[in-house]
Amino acid sequence: MLALAALAAVAPLGLPLQDEQPVLELRVNRAIARGVGYLKSMQQPDGGFGGYEQHPGGRTAFCALALAEAGVRRSDPALVRALQAIEDFEPRSTYGASVYLLMVEALGAPEDLRPGAQACLDFLVETAVNGVWAYPWGHLCLSNTQFALIALRGADRIGLDVPESAVLGAIDGMDTFRHRSGGFVYAPGGEPYAGVTAAALASYAALEQLADGSSKATSALRRERKAIAGAEAWLAQRFDPTRNTLGNGSWTPFWHMAYMWAIERWCGLTGRQQFAGRDWYREGATWLVETQAPEGCWTLQDTRIENTCLALLFLRRATVSSGGELAEVDAATDGEDAVRPAVPERPGPAAVRLTEWWVAGPWADTPAGELLLEPPFDPLEVVPDGRDRVGRRKWQPVDLRADRWDDLDALTGRTGDRQLWCLGTWLRVEPDPSDPERPVEILLWLDLEDGHDVVVAGERRARDRRVRAAINGDVRVPLRLAPGSHPVVVVVQDEFGAAAVGARLTDAANGAPPERVRAGREPPR
């Protein structure tokens, strides 16, 4: 590791300096500083950061961990107040105990915090179920398990005695989450995806370090080599630091930041600079600095505090870094605040909802979600006029709500999951009196949970296999339309739950749509 103060152009710890990298290095360091500023702004008057009743003190310990790893001195008022807020911390959940232990490790295991760390270690050892860990209400999952294992590694690193039985139990217990495809699942019976498979590999890497010096644990891990190799092969086929890919090729934004930290832990603990031929850190860091909100947080899935902590831990390569204070980052970057130009992530308050639509379907999809890629009709040739059938289905007129998104299941009475729907409407652009040929630039915003295909005027404008996303209008489709009538076709995938759909229109600056744009179910004349 290179000390930050020694660098002319500061690099995040663990990122090798190369001639083509200084721009990214500075952007990363500024993103770290802005992320720290956001966390400090969210601190409550009592020094805590709020959180969930099932993990009392856990969010505050997690924020303190992220601040410490980002380079904030322990004497910083924000850290001092956070530690005061959890000075009577008692572990009551796997997450809470794990992040507290990791926080103590990040702070250098000061004597006043060691009793709490020991209590957390004891809690984790006592609450393991068949070698793995669960929520307080008993739900076993790989997320709890990987947090516990990285925490046991932290306990070992600060000199606490981790029982060999806990390590042996965890090695055997990892089979609970193995999928026949080679990937790993969040909970028994689920489907594998990149985030939990990376978490499994990080867990095995932590177990490798915990097994050091134990012949029994080392021997047990040898029996896991096939499982580890299978997980690596599964992940290599689907690896993308910017997308949490599922086994069927679709992807989800759900807990994407946890996926990124799992990548950092696994690659950091195993010394990987690349995986599947890709520079995992550079790609991930580039994506993070480009998606950081102007206020310094990361807003994916709206869990801003947790997302920001996880992003900071990735950017700082916290699993293998050894310090370096934030003040050095500020000094090296001259305190500049390189805020990227704001790109709207949600429709603005002046957005107008498109309520008049035709709908056809549904069609039964496959478990692999293949129908979105090969529907029983060509979306490029669909004309939403209510007359022609679509894939042997009749059009039905529907009025979507003017105040929020709708559920097509409830709206049509055709309930089910793993289905495909087709919707259509029209946009009419009136000529500009001063320039009759001048096109209009607008933004179409869609409320969608799962995959979608958007075609406007016979041209595909957006297609994505994203699933299990927040239904918050964040599907943004820029349009440049000439005067005239333009058909809009939206193919909607419904994996589980609601068949969510909603649509809003703004101008290109996310304000009210231009007056010369009208929408309706019938082709405007």
Give a topology summary.
Elements: H1 22-41, H2 58-70, H3 77-85, H4 94-106, H5 114-127, H6 142-157, H7 164-173, H8 194-211, H9 215-222, H10 225-238, E1 244-245, E2 251-252, H11 256-270, H12 280-291, H13 304-315, H14 326-332, E3 352-353, E4 356-364, E5 396-399, E6 406-407, H15 408-412, E7 419-429, E8 440-447, E9 452-456, E10 459-464, E11 475-481, E12 484-494, E13 500-507, E14 517-520
Antiparallel strand pairs: 1-2, 3-13, 4-5, 4-7, 6-13, 7-12, 7-14, 8-11, 8-13, 9-10, 9-12
Helix pairs in contact: 1-2, 1-12, 1-13, 2-3, 2-4, 2-13, 4-5, 4-6, 5-6, 6-8, 7-8, 7-9, 8-9, 8-10, 8-11, 11-13
Kindly describe this structure.
There is one protein chain. By secondary structure, the protein is an alpha+beta fold. It folds into 2 domains: 23-332, Glycosyltransferase (Alpha/alpha barrel); 352-520, Jelly Rolls (Sandwich). 35% of the residues lie in helices and 15% in strands. It is built from 15 helices and 14 strands. It has helices spanning 22-41, 58-70, 77-85, 94-106, 114-127, 142-157, 164-173, 194-211, 215-222, 225-238, 256-270, 280-291, 304-315, 326-332, 408-412, and strands spanning 244-245, 251-252, 352-353, 356-364, 396-399, 406-407, 419-429, 440-447, 452-456, 459-464, 475-481, 484-494, 500-507, 517-520. Strands 4, 5, 7, 9, 10, 12 and 14 form a 7-stranded antiparallel β-sheet that branches. Strands 3, 6, 8, 11 and 13 form a 5-stranded antiparallel β-sheet that branches. The protein has a two-stranded antiparallel sheet with strand order 1-2. A hairpin with a 2-residue loop joins strand 9 and strand 10. Helix 1 (22-41) crosses helix 12 (280-291) and helix 8 (194-211) runs antiparallel to helix 10. 46% of the residues are buried.
